[in-house]
Design a protein that fits this description.
The structure is a homotrimer. By secondary structure, the first copy, chain A, is of the alpha/beta class. Chain A is built from 12 helices and 11 strands. Chain A folds into 2 domains: 164 residues, Rossmann fold; 158 residues, Aspartate/ornithine carbamoyltransferase (Rossmann fold). In chain A, strand 3, helix 6 and strand 4 form a beta-alpha-beta unit. Chain A starts with 31 loop residues before the first helix and ends with a helix. At the A-C interface, strand 2 and helix 5 of A face helix 4 and helix 11 of C.
């Protein structure tokens, strides 16, 4: 069905973008700035075919950059007429419920014409009655081509992989990692500053990265930080602002040391905010049905002393730690970050499922941008 | 894929209808009587493209009639080979669970070859943890082309529309409205009496409309009544039978007055039943997981003193307020009403999503019925 | 769309199978041994078109064998490019939650390019509020082409069939039956011993069938046993090992007597295990959210005195009644059984929905295997 579909001329395939409201100054970087700079190197992405996606640290710098470039292209162009995931079935197994992440993945799959078996609620599963994840993995082998799993247990990925022989994408495992959130984070940053995908020309322009949260115990911020190591040449310093005495945890500290990144820990938000170029806000942790909220010193609003050019990221959902007064300011990169999550997941799914060849003409167009 | 599909000859596209059981006298009006009378005016339906569907009162008489005519055509013909919603993604966001309405919409979407991201249970969402509907709306912008939402809060539609920039279809908001149910109600009535779509020829044939329920606080019956205003030339009187002192509520009373419709309130079912031509039965209100039931004076069964030619509507689900002894009588229009809900929603979705051009030959066939 | 799709040469359509891990000796019979032996007789399967699938006893020996042969073909070949269920909509109505069975059916439907409306949790339905199954059946008539239902009540199938006029597939009704599980069980056995589909050549090679469980009250084992009656010529004796005094129940005993099968009841596992050729393990019954577990005498592990050539079946999920030490032994047919469940359901759905003609060339290929 798909191979025979005549490709529409690229200009007709351009997506009608959902514009932000006119009174908003939120940043919506143009994706074209990223992928038109140079061609997507499909060979780098082919390395991901058939792989499990478990942790942020498994990606190379090149893989992250090429995924972001492909995602930018997918954000720009209508992809569904090419049916890149035709015939592929995905299980979205959310033993820990998360509508945001689940619907983001399901949107990515459906836009690519893949099919979804949805497990929205762990309470409906045999797992709730004591069935092992290993047995569930064995079952999924016969049902699907890829499993996307969220679970409250950090070792859930190890457990299901005892028997699972189709690719597993970790969509959050306990206090472990959330690697596709990190991809969404860096996709937003690369659209904002496409030069992050290149070696730094001017070393004096390095960025100060600040994190409000606890990388040692919060998976989204941990994965973000571990992926930041790939961009260490662009980073001057990492400042973690947390009420915890040791917010990193041993594993993350060790990685930062090996990565040669200068870092600092503080519990004083106001002192550090004015220096930061990128503020990763995650001072709230949703844990199953409850959450842990930091005290009010760790909240941000439009009166916070933020550098004029600084951008704020937030993995969402939020409560009041990130005030809506910031939504229409030029610090708001978090809506772009949320919006892009669908496209970076599309790029990842096409790579893992080995369907990068579905877009021959668009790729050619891109590989010879100067012709 | 869709444009190139050769259209099957219309006679082959005719749907194999699900016949009622032979011993049933329930009314199943033939949809052809409605749409073959005159052509569907697509220009009227194009007015709905990109619109939010929030309240019954937003529709014009012409829009309701053309939607019903298109729905009748969709009930008669197999539509899926034309793929009218190819590539379109819908979120069915049922923060208040409702399997009947959700599955009705999902059936409509799937029959048109659209795709569904299903949120069947608000308890699995960030909303349950305190995330704002405004943030959820921002998220949906990137995930889908249209949102169909049910919610326990009346102002939920206002809240999500703070950030939502793709069309919203209100599938029930608290004690507010349920406009697509009203469309399903009037679709059943227009199939039963196609002349309702035309100016009345004989003014003595006006219909008496009776409502068992409380329009002021029950969204389905409120939307039904507000849509009835469009058909005021065919209505002699509206009688509301309720145990509430003021069952209309101020807003509805004001609309009835402006609409010039004669109305009466009563709490005596038996006195009024024999006069009524159309009985809208909704003396039970499902509210989340519980419901409010009126006392036994407001129940109907096959021994109730109903006019021989009268028809009964009910938005369903029902408990014992509408006895199953009525199911196989010629008063039963409610099964036809339930059955048609899928097709009127198909007509609405095609209009809102701007995909009315997907059916050129069927339309031509219809626009020149005398050729 | 589907009819015009050029069929790929059969050799390209061959499925890349998910191989078991190298250290496993679990039995994964090659499906080709079953369907290449002789052609699928489509006329036998056409008898199932439009039928409700309610109990194991409704199938003929021929129907079970032809379903298994078609399933073996579907396990071997990529079926989705033929879109056999294009345009067909299924409701998976799991009023009793069961992720395993629901996802198995949904996988089968999606692989055949059908569409799914999923009700994963009865708590979100009107049924939870008191709506009758008869009314829900009436609703489904308009929404779908087939209903797959699981329910806690044994008479739920009777109830919904009061109004349902599209085919119903029983996916487990209380302590009633689970006929598609029985098909999956016998599909695994027929792949293991394809000669079961033929009259026995050597009567001395009959099989001893042992059941750990209570057919009288457990639907999976009951349906398995009732379907075993069709294979009575291959069975020497049925031994039921249970802690219940009368594990069969009157209905099953009567059927065994009529079927002329020799049977025995015992509560001593160790005495009988060494004689058994086929061990159906189901000494645990999941009942809604809880389960009933037999005592430790009824558990199996790799030290149990099992005949070297014996195979173990288990409908899964399991807790500790079937130890994982058996997983990598040649007794493990239960993983093959779980894996095949998707394909036997595909074969059944294509038959019930009347879409057996979707595969002309593959059928031709098969019907003349000697050309």
């Amino acid at each position: 069905m798909n191979e025979e579909t005549p490709l529409p001329p690229p200009e007709e395939a351009e997506r009608a973008s959902i514009e932000p409201p006119e009174d908003s100054k939120a940043i919506r970087p143009e994706p074209g700035d990223l992928f038109e700079r140079n061609a997507v190197d499909l060979n780098v992405l082919r390395e991901l075919e058939g792989e499990n996606i478990l942790v942020a640290g498994q990606f190379s710098f090149e893989q992250v950059c090429e995924l972001c470039k492909l995602a930018a292209m997918l954000e720009k162009l209508e992809i569904w007429p090419y049916h890149p995931l035709d015939g592929k079935i995905f299980v979205t197994a959310f033993f820990e419920a998360s509508t945001r992440t689940r619907t983001s993945f399901e949107s990515a799959i459906l836009r690519l014409d893949g099919k979804v078996i949805s497990i929205a609620d762990g309470r409906t599963t045999g797992q709730a009655k004591g069935e092992s994840l290993a047995d569930i993995g064995e079952m999924f082998n016969g049902y699907a081509d890829c499993v996307i799993m969220r679970h409250t247990d950090t070792d859930s990925t190890d457990q299901i992989l005892q028997n699972l022989r189709i690719p597993l994408i970790n969509a959050g495992n306990g206090s472990g990692e959330h690697p596709t959130q990190a991809l969404a984070d860096w996709f937003a940053l690369l659209k904002w500053k496409p030069e992050l995908a290149l070696p730094p020309v001017d070393k004096s322009n390095k960025l100060n990265l600040g994190i409000l949260g606890t990388p040692g115990s919060m998976r989204a911020v941990k994965s973000f930080l571990l992926m930041a190591l790939l961009f260490h040449e662009h980073i001057d310093k990492v400042t973690v602002i947390s009420e915890m005495a040791d917010p990193f945890g041993e594993e993350v500290t060790e990685e930062l040391r090996k990565g040669g990144i200068d870092y600092e820990v503080s519990n004083d938000v106001r002192e550090h905010l004015p220096e930061l170029d990128i503020i990763y806000m995650n001072s709230i942790a949703f844990l199953g049905d409850s959450y842990k909220n930091m005290d009010s010193r760790f909240k941000l609003d439009s009166s916070s002393p933020i550098k004029e050019s600084a951008v704020i990221l937030h993995p969402l959902a939020r409560l009041d730690e990130l005030d809506t007064s910031l939504d229409k300011t030029p610090h708001n990169l978090y809506f772009s970050q949320a919006h892009g999550a669908v496209f970076i997941r599309q790029a990842l799914l096409m790579s893992v499922l080995g369907r990068l060849n579905a877009l021959p003409q668009m790729m050619d167009l891109n590989q010879n941008p100067s012709d």
